[in-house]
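ugh ok so i messed up the first submission bc i forgot one of the chains. this is the corrected input, ALL of the components this time, i swear. 831 residues overall. if the numbers dont match what u have on ur side tell me asap before i send this to the collaborators (the ones from the other lab, u know who)
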Amino acid sequence: MQTNNSSNGSLLEKYPRLIKNWKSISLIIIASGLAIIWLILEISYSWDIFVIRFGRSVIDGLAFSMLLFLMVSGFFLIFGLCDVINFAHGAFFMLGGFIGFEIYLLIESILYPLLGTNLFIMSLIAFLGACLLSAVILALIGGGIEYFTIRRLYGQAIAQILLTVGFMFIINEFAKLVWGTPIQTYFIESSSPSKYFFLSGTINLGTGLVFDNYRIILIIIGLLIALLMFLTLKKTRIGYQIQAGIEDSEMVEALGINVKRLFTLTFMAGAALAGLAGTVLVPWLGANSGHGTNYLVFAFVIVVVGGAHYGRLEGTFFGSLIIGLSIKFCEYFFPDISSIIAFLIMAIVLVFKPGGLTGED
Amino acid sequence: MHNRFSTFRENISETLSNNKVTTAIIAFLYVLPLFTTAETSPFRSLLSIITQVLIFGILAMSFDLQLGRTGLLNFGQAALFGVGAYAFVFTMMDPSILSFFTIRFISIGSIIFPLPLDLVVYFLVILIAVAVGILLGIIMGLTTNRLRGTGFAFIALAMAMVLYNYFSGNPDISGGETGLRIQTPEPLRTDGFYLLFVLLSIITIIIFLAMVLVYLKERRIKPAFQFTDSETTFGTSRTSIIALSIFLVTVIAALVVVWIAFGNNITGLVETTDAYFRTIPTQYYLVLTCALLIYLFVKRLVSSPFGRMMAAVAQNEERAEALGYNVYLCKIMAVGISGGIAALSGALYSQYIRVIDPVTTLGVNISINAMLYDIVGGIGTLLGPFVGTGIVIYSELRLVDVFGDWWIIVLGIIYIVIVLFFPQGIVGSIQLRSRSIKAKLRQFKINESDYWLFTLLGFIILILILLILI
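and heres the new structure output, hopefully the right one now
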């Protein structure tokens, strides 16, 4: 929650919208502050254990939030611009993980004889290639689905949902057939011939504060991509078009912009982000055919918390931060409610601010 | 007195002549279990499959009440279904409910009548399950005003996931992966319950015969049908007495024939044993009766003022609001009623399958299946949910033979084709083309009043084909 706190201060002058939403933001800050104080007072951990758990939950939470943001931003863009609740998004995410995993193994099996001595570069190339290729493949799949099927059904919200549920069904069952049921999880290190991944290993900050390298890198990657996305939205022509389209797509069409092409592009971008997020997840939590449904629900929760209708990408960003951090905090401090904390937060947001953090009521 | 009798008779004959197809099919479905003699006959497995189809048909019907009638997409249908199943199992396993009943028998003088406490408790338990479903449905319905439009799908799914996570996270409550076992409830294993349904099936046979009589009368004196009754009171009463006596004679003859044909089976089936296959006909009858009641209830509901209100909400929410309807209340009630029906199907499912675990009762798959059945059959139709369930469940059994493990992908592709090109579903598409189909049938000299005969024949042939294939 502290990152949330400090970033608000610097953003307040620049974004008057945040001042408008001071009620909800201050509510969240107060609630999290009270939770932390209660935790320190009530639970008799020794100070060291508390620090270790706190540090781990912050790092894990931030990494998890960045991952969620990567996935949910695609979902949000598709929902905001095209008004399609893409139920297949979780399936895209899961499929991206498997495709990235397979591509990583493929590239490694090609490079292993060539660069057998330099495992680091081999693994780096394989990972970057996997991220890129899985994003491209998922973009093609998403674009194809939009172009051939969803395009026929714009304006019929329920028919679109039914259609995307069909694709979710097909992709999930396909993954189960090919890669096995959710009992099985695939990890890179145990599956690759070299048993090496360039970001595995830990970093030790003393007194038991041991973190996985990959999670810290994940935070940096996530922040970089988020920055890139914000820059694209705020500075480029297509970003302006997407933003305007979220506000009022009919008006944008009246201004002579090819909205259909814009929709297809957004769909492709959203699916690509899902594929990228899925691949990025693999070195941490592995590839699993059950991820589709689990993470789809997180996507819903985050979009509702961040502002569903006429919301903004910032809302999704802070929503992912809130959800990711609170899930990881609960995993370390209150394991009993860690599976339902996200829904509790959603319920609180819906009761006090039905439109979400940035959306309209 | 006479007048009242006459109008009553007229009402009945009118209802029968309007619902010939339904009556024929229902009577046939009720007679079906009487054919089973051997415990291991393929008929039993067919009955078992039909039972499953009817259970999920009820679930699909409850889903249709929201999607087809009110325009609400509920992805938390699994929660309603699973809550019904778990409420049934919990209350059934807990004997403390029996302690509410202190009177165990009625004694008149020296004769003691034991009360059918098992039966009372059984129905009470089902009612509790339904009540829990209604309650959860109302809670779900309360969230419909929080997000506009399709946002309800989010919240309902999230609520279902909370329940699912809670139940799968606490194996001591839910039974975990191995599941929670229940015995087949006591009433289903007694002969009295079965005989009750046999009685019901005989009643349906009688209704069917009455329908046939009405049909024959209609065919014979079609042009004069309108004013035969209003000639003179004396003539009417005489014709009615003659018709009644003919009818009674026919019924008695038919019953004698039924008894000669099936008597062996009826007496053979009521030996009380605990074996599972023994209870299949009883389960079948129970589920069929529930499905029939739900069908009639939904049919009535849809044509009531409340049903019109639901249709108004489904078509245009703002307009309905502007016309002065309470849209929010309408949605809450729709989700509540649908929750009760879904919980009923969950309760029936739990005693049919006898082992329940979180994945098969609360998992997201249940919601997706309910949607699949409804879409394939046709949203907003009465028979669609049942037809869709039958087709999907049966094709699940058959597609495995043809496509191996890949059948589920084929099913998904069929589903997408239906959503894209036949958004009305199977029954809906037939209804859309009903006029041209009727015109085509009229060319073959088949009138509307003859449809039931051909539907019944087709249904019998279908069942025979299924029997041979199984």
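quick check: Chain B touches chain A at residues 67, 71, 73, 143, 146-151, 153-155, 157-159, 161-162, 165-166, 169, 364, 368, 371-372, 375, 405-406, 408-409, 412-413, 415-416, 419-420, 423 (CB under 8 Å). that seems consistent at least. The two ends of chain B are 54 Å apart (CA to CA).
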